[in-house]
Design a protein that fits this description.
With about 500 residues, this protein is α/β, with parallel strands linked by helices. The protein contains 18 helices and 15 strands. Helix 4 crosses helix 5.
């Protein structure tokens, strides 16, 4: 309940995926809406993801009681079916049924009027003047994106695109050389507006007849697909980028936007900003479609998602997304023989506390840096965790420095299930994942020898063996997990696309 991401430890998606694909008729989607099949599947995975906490909670309740004496009232058909799939049929539940078509018809009519009004409000008698750009950058306020903008700015104009016109939302500071816009700033010419209204009405009606008996919350997301696509159609009537840097692989917009970019000759770029370490199959990453998708290493594609990611999407390993150019200079530099321990999802777990304390006790003359992920730092369990780890041990030092800053201050790294495991090894540390959580069911890191450790004793022995020359940390064997070329990720991206970036700045 504190951090929703922890629910992925229970591997819910993999356990229900076969049922999900059958219940939502994925095979039929390929036939009846082939051009929207991937968007449909992406939305479905995201829709069920919001039911995971209910599924897990009810599973625990029903397995801990005499379920024959328990009645569960009000479950949607999808939640009920997913729960039975997750529980291997252990729960026999009656789903709550309603004449969904009545609700869905009202959604259908409402969305039609809304879409027509939205288009007409942005329609002008003449077609809008088009502006050629080198890059539109999906501005979510992540400073790591600045390096991408700076790299492509040499080829032409860069536009920072906000998703919401909300001054309270954090966005990238707008340098003077970058313009800024909101994604709903697009416009239509009169003829284009009429054509788009006709296209939208036809598609909305088609979706209604196909999905009118589905749950309203699910149908709404399908019915809204034309509107989500129209936003980018209108935007590209004004701004025509050669490249679009998207940070929305979690959202269906990236799939729809790729189609609109193809029409204007643009290229869709995306980056896999985190590694699936809590489990292998993340529902929000199951269906991805960019022209080029930058990843830490090819393992995430080859071993997990190859069958469902777009066939024509180019996969390019770039390593860590968060590193600065100067960080790469330190990969082979000498570092203090101290140890940094990164904590996030296992923060507060007794087994992790024991691991930290045993390592600190075994190396009393070394600094044991203890870093907690920012999303966990305010939690009460984090405060207790720091105290439990450091009590009576002067060499355990809590720090709020970023992981990349700490890579310079240690030779060894231990982390719970996190992207930091492979980022640390990329930047020259002997890095290990603490594989100690009893509910952590699946993890790709376990497929790579010596990367995971089950106890503090194993880590202590590994460190002694490295320093006594009895064992060499097998960094090169992890090249499938993360790029080990030592090249900054922006250099790799520019080598991949920079030579074809020929857009000049429009007057």
């Amino acid at each position: 309940r504190e951090v929703f991401a922890e629910i992925y430890l229970y591997n819910i998606f993999e356990k229900i995926e076969a049922w999900q694909n059958k219940f939502f008729e994925f095979k039929d989607a390929e036939k009846i809406i082939p051009e929207y099949a991937m968007a449909y599947k992406h939305i479905t995975c995201g829709y069920l993801r919001m039911h995971y906490l209910t599924i897990l909670t009810l599973d625990k309740i029903l397995k801990s009681t005499d379920s024959s004496n328990v009645r569960v009232i009000g479950l949607l058909p999808s939640t009920s079916g997913a729960l039975e799939a997750f529980s291997n049929g252990a729960s026999s539940l009656r789903a709550f049924k309603m004449p969904w078509v009545i609700f869905n018809f009202s959604i259908y009519i409402s969305l039609i009027f809304y879409k027509i009004g939205w288009i007409l409000f942005r329609t002008r008698p003449l077609s809008p003047q088009q502006q050629k750009l080198a890059l539109i950058l999906d501005d979510i306020g992540d400073l790591r994106d600045v390096a991408v903008a700076s790299s492509l700015a040499q080829h032409g104009k860069v536009l920072l695109l906000r998703r919401y016109d909300d001054p309270t939302t954090n966005h990238l500071r707008k340098p003077e050389q970058y313009d800024s816009a909101v994604n709903t700033d697009g416009r239509f010419g009169l003829l284009n507006a009429i054509q788009t209204i006709g296209w939208s009405l036809k598609l909305c009606t088609r979706f209604f007849w196909l999905f009118k008996y589905r749950e309203p919350a699910f149908y709404f997301q399908i019915a809204a697909l034309p509107y989500r696509q129209i936003i980018y159609r209108a935007l590209f009537n004004i701004y025509q980028p050669q490249y679009f840097w998207g940070r929305d692989d979690y959202n269906v917009e990236h799939i729809l936007r790729r189609h609109e970019l193809k029409i204007i000759g643009g290229t869709s770029l995306g980056i896999n900003h985190g590694f699936p370490s809590y489990t292998n199959l993340f529902p929000q990453w199951r269906y991805i479609s960019f022209d080029r998708y930058y990843v830490f290493g090819r393992a995430v594609y080859e071993r997990i998602y190859k069958s469902t990611w777009a066939d024509d999407m180019k996969i390019i390993p770039v390593g860590s997304f968060g590193a600065k150019p100067e960080d790469y200079d330190l990969i082979k530099a000498e570092k203090p023989n101290d140890i940094v321990i990164f904590s996030a999802i296992f923060t507060g777990h007794n087994l992790f506390v024991d691991l930290v304390r045993k390592i600190a006790t075994a190396f009393p003359n070394r600094t044991i840096w203890l870093q907690i992920k920012t999303t966990y730092q305010p939690l009460p369990r984090a405060i207790k965790f720091i105290d439990d780890c450091s009590k009576g041990l002067n060499n355990v030092v809590y720090t709020t420095k970023s992981p990349h800053s700490l890579f310079k201050q240690a030779t060894y790294a231990i982390s719970d299930a996190s992207t930091t495991v492979i980022e640390a090894l990329q930047f020259g540390l002997a890095s290990f994942m603490a594989d100690i959580h009893p509910n952590h069911e699946v993890c790709l890191f376990r497929e790579f020898d010596h990367l995971c450790i089950k106890s503090a004793d194993t880590v202590i022995k590994r460190i002694h063996d490295i320093e006594r020359g009895r064992w060499i940390y097998p960094r090169e064997s992890y090249g499938e997990l993360i790029d080990l070329s030592g090249r900054p990720f922006t250099n790799i991206i520019m080598d991949d696309i920079g030579k074809t970036a020929t857009v000049s700045q429009s007057p």
